[in-house]
Write a structure and sequence with these properties.
- By secondary structure, this protein is α/β, with parallel strands linked by helices.
- The protein has a single domain, classed as Rossmann fold (3-Layer(aba) Sandwich), CATH 3.40.50.
- Helices cover 35% and strands 31% of the residues.
- The chain is built from 7 helices and 11 strands.
- Strand 10 and strand 11 form a beta hairpin.
- It starts with a strand and ends with a strand.
- The C terminus is likely disordered.
């Protein structure tokens, strides 16, 4: 299996006035194609920072990071935006749907505004994703007419519509009840199987931890262990 994400001594330090805060300290990890993994730990442990670095939303202050074979530490702001638009989908805790756009338009948005795909291709892809996430009959509704679970289904479809190599999901079940969260996780695993998309989570939700094949545990910015679904643990 090819490594889709490779981090070597990855570090991120933020300056807050005269104080330096080490959000991520010398982390080493690899994530393969089609993986379903989670970075876990308490608030402030660095898990969201790791996702932001992988997603090229932030730049490391030290170490190396390759995503889909590219050294993303060398990308400038505009190159990073193009890279995200081609290779990465995002799912957020608060859905981040555009309130004035319909379900179909929200899913279409990255194809139109980021990738500038032709109209016929956009329609084909949007319809395929609407069917895949079970939202065909809701496509004309606005986000405020949807339940939390429906909003997250739309968010998953939007993340996948560009055929990204990986999807980064930051606390995607935090605002969902148990039944809905289980349904969304099942949907993500189904899409992973069908599209061979890698899903990387940032979470402290035990429901996601139970479904993840690998858990990377962070504590005060340090990657302390990772455990496989078989229960093996590695330093």
């Amino acid at each position: 299996m090819m490594s889709l994400v490779v981090a070597r001594e990855l570090s991120k330090t933020y300056k807050m006035g005269d104080v330096e805060v080490d959000a991520v300290k010398n982390a080493n990890f690899e994530i393969g194609e089609g993986a379903f993994v989670a970075f876990v730990g308490p608030s402030g442990s660095g898990k969201t920072t790791v996702l932001n670095l992988i997603g090229c939303l932030d730049k490391p202050t030290g170490g190396g990071l390759e995503v889909t074979g590219f050294d993303v530490t060398r990308l400038d702001r505009f190159q990073a935006a193009r890279f995200r638009g081609t290779n990465i989908g995002f799912v957020f805790q608060n859905f981040n749907l555009i309130p004035v756009l319909t379900v179909a338009e929200n899913i279409e948005y990255p194809l139109l505004m980021v990738q500038n795909r032709p109209a016929k291709e956009r329609v084909t892809r949007v319809n395929a994703l609407l069917e895949a996430v079970g939202m065909e009959d809701q496509k004309a509704k606005l986000p405020d007419q949807l339940s939390g679970g429906q909003k997250q289904r739309v968010a998953v479809a939007r993340a996948l519509v560009t055929n990204p190599k990986l999807v980064l999901a930051d606390e995607p079940t935090a605002n969902l009840d148990h039944k809905t969260a289980h349904s969304i996780l099942g949907l993500m695993k189904k899409m992973r199987r069908e599209m061979n998309t890698t899903f990387i989570f940032s979470t402290h939700d035990p429901r996601i931890m139970a479904e993840a094949e690998v858990l990377f545990t962070l504590e005060d910015g340090r990657l302390i262990t990772h455990a496989t679904e078989e229960g093996g643990t590695n330093d």
